[in-house]
Known about the structure:
By secondary structure, the protein is of the alpha/beta class. Helices cover 24% and strands 30% of the residues. Helix 8 crosses helix 11 (349-366). The termini are far apart. Zinc ion (ZN) is lined by residues 275, 294-296, 331, 334, 336-337. Acetamide binds at residues 324-325, 374, 391.
Amino acid sequence: MNLHFVSVILIILFGTFNQILFAQAKDVSPILPSPVVYKRVKGNLYLPKKLSLNKSEYPENIRSQFDVLLEKFHKLNTVDTTGKAFIRLRKLKNVPKDFYSIAVNDYLLISYSNEKSLFYALESLIQLIQTEDDIKYIPKAFIQDYPKFEWRGLHLDVSRHFFTVDEIKKYLDLMAFYKLNTFHWHLTDDQGWRIEIKAFPKLTSIGAYRDSTVSRHFTSQPREYNKEKYGGFYTQDEIKEIVSHAKQRYISIVPEIEMPGHSRAALAAYPEFSCNNIQKPVPGLWGVYDDIYCTKEESFQFIESILEEVVNLFPGEYIHIGGDEAPKTRWKHCENCQNRIKENNLKNEEALQSFFINRIDRFLSKKNKKIIGWDEILEGGLSPNAAVMSWRGMKGGIDAAKKSHYVVMTPGSHCYFDHYQSKSKDEPLAIGGYTPLEKVYDFNPIPSELNTNESSFILGAQANLWTEYIPNLKQLEYMAYPRAIALSQSLWCHDRPSYNSFFKTLTETHFLFLDLLNVNYSRSSLKPNIDIASIKNGISIKVNAHDSLDSYKTQIIENDTIVEVFDLKSGQPLSIKSTEKNMTMTDLKFTSTKNNISSGIRIMRHLGLGATTNYITEPNPQYNYNKSLLTDGQYGARPWRGHEWIGFDSSEIVFEIELATKKKVKNININFLKSNGSWIYLPNKVLIYKKRTKRWRLCKSRKVKNEKTKFKINRRIRKLRFVIRTHEQIPTGLPGAGHTPWTFIDEIEFQ
Ligand code: ACM
Ligand code: ZN
């Protein structure tokens, strides 16, 4: 929006009024996502109990939704009039796509460009109304608004866990309230097929149910299963009902039918479309499986018949065909697939995947649909019409945009809402990763590598909600909100307010809205940041609140007994000394006096607590978030969350640790992480050196066999050098084969 345009509209709408107040600072809008223009004007518009409007001006779906929200939020109603209405509408032409404006003066004047923008205007209007002593009013203001990106999405995986029709509707309602407009419905995956296909009834009678589901995190050993049958699916009538519900909210649904991988549920029902015809059950373990669709003709016909029904159910432009995480193991050993490669002069199995996607692209193009797939569809050559959903970072999206393909950005770093949202130990189990609200807020779907023309291929972005660890709607809402609002802000706003300003509007106004909507949103963003630093012979802890005036009732707990209670101001340092003898565990609990939210940390007080580390080998900056981490008394979390460990990606790691004074140390325990799926392996060997006169002398060395590796020291020490050697390469057959293994360490205990 250029300024010239703003002023023209201001004159059109306010030409007869002369009390426009041009505030010095930008006025803060209560509406989220924040509008392009929010200009406060002197005074308030007080609302009658019944807001009159001209019924004929409103499509039925818009009016009824407005009525419901008005009643729910403000106990107000609308009433029809044929005369001058309290809410007046005006249609605009030649304005940006989905543009609307609201002038709040002596009545409400909504100017809009299409039905969708009228709907958005009314959603915004709901957010403008305030109450004081039971009196309803809107601060007089002028609002102008339209979205920056066309694709503002939320995804939902209904395969790993199933959500009912009513739950999906609630998810859509919330999306609409925050002006998100694309619902990516991940309907099929290994652990369950969720859409009725009339031509292949076994897809749901067999494919929609698994016999058992893995308990706890899937990397936890030994693996345990709950041995309960689990599943469900949507009938075609239910799909139609949801499509219609979404349409009324101006949300387009992108159904995903995964291929060629993540197809175990389909192949459990119809094993004849796999490479080896072997029937295997619908799995209850999360992961990536070798069994994928074969590329024989019968398999294509099977998939095309499915898509034929899918296309008829979903009126939207795009069909998502998956394409991610498809191991080529079966294709390599399949006569049919190898023949396909030869017949078509293909280079390898990656080219066969490209051939696969190409064929589906041609089929769907004939049905007037566009395909979109995960960024793996770039491998082996991108199909001519395909759009790319970039999930393994932004690179796939950048490559695709440079080739003039449309792109939706959904990088794991900012858009995976199955990641943890705070570092607090009491977050419910999640898959891993760390994507706090502020990080989502900072997301920009346009990477700096793209020029203006290339950037025009970025349709927008979406957040993905994979549901391995999201078993129900409550947990779904907890993971999605408020992060989805931060995402909407990144996608809607042309010029985002600061995070602090957003955070204030969010927590002071929108948390109340979410309460009214009965949403189980996360309040983790209100938790303070807890900073730990080394001090002489111990650590210093600072609890930094978002509101610097906050203070914390602090409890020190030892052996489950509260030993001390005191008040700690935000930012005030609290010191914890290292032990002089045996290791002891100390728990600290901080409860905010402002919002009553508690956070806790657990500290292992060992002889080396707060010892300084000098890194000769630099840790990878992606994971090295705190220099004192190796001796801060806190252990890296399991399952691994992506932080809280020092991560190295070199084959020799060297660092020195210096205690505050010379101490008699019996043992040193080094805690490593083993998470092979993330290419994190135990190292091969550790050597510990002690400084004698001017030279480092080897004091201990041993091979690493376990995550916790113990070294008997039994002497007085102050400064040690650690040399850690990894295996040269990850061996063939293991995740990340051929690469240098990652080494993750935390903590090093001195006993
Ligand atoms: C994905 O997360 N496998 C697209
Ligand atoms: Zn095959």
